[in-house]
Amino acid sequence: MFAADRSLRRFNLFLMVVVTTALMLPIILALSRSVESPWGFRTYLWALSDPRLPRFYLNSSIVSAGTIILTVSCASLAGFAFSKFEFPLKSVLFLMLLITLLVPLTTAIIPLFVLIRGLDLYNSYLGLILPLAAFGVPFHTVLIANYLNSLPNELVEAAYIDGCSDFGVFWRIMLPLSMPVQAVVIVLTFLGSWNNYLLPLILLRDQALHTVPVAAVNVGSLAALFLLAVPTLIIFLLFQRVFIGSVTSGAFG
What's the domain count of the chain? Predict the structure, then answer.
């Protein structure tokens, strides 16, 4: 029995090493290529001195912050409604929400572009934030609703007895108790908005508004590419414990 457990652990360890190596190999090769020039690591110093770099960081920060605020607000309220309320066509609406998850972003590019142009939001932060949030809200609504389903309905009933309104129940009870899944939503939304390349490429014309992924391609330097990707690594490391803890505690189901 113990021998079988040790063999299983060794196999799992071997499998993790193989998978991690396969995933990290392209990054390691790109990092080595970025310092292959005669200047070595000085290429990173020159990339840091690029006057456009702060602007690209600012653009992505504005877009990510706006997307997070809009996505978390809408998904949290919708998830609370689907989890704790009963209303007509609830199952149909939830099914429609799930169906939207099957629609690839690329199939909606042309109508989305026409819509943003029609609303006079082309080449603006808001014209990029709204589509990013719209494509993120359905998944995060399902995520939050599943998490709230694990919280007892007696909490809601007790809050009503104490005189809370519907929004009071959400704000005072459900939102604080759902902070683990909210952290997951924030991290996923940040990564999705910060790393998105297709929407900024199509919806932003001026280089002064370009976000990090588009800027990284335009700069054409591997050193700059790694520097522009640093914030995503920092955010994940900061929220690593909360993110993994939420997953293992059932935030996804």
Answer: 1
Whole domain around residue 87: which residue ranges? 53-252
Asked if residue 40 is part of any domain, the answer here is no
The model carries a pTM of: 0.82
| 205 contact partners, CB below 8 Å, separation of at least 6 | 122, 123
- Which CATH number goes with the domain that contains 81? 1.10.3720.10
pLDDT in tens, 183-218: 889 989 998 999 899 999 999 988 889 998 888 777
Report yes or no on 45 lying in a domain.
no
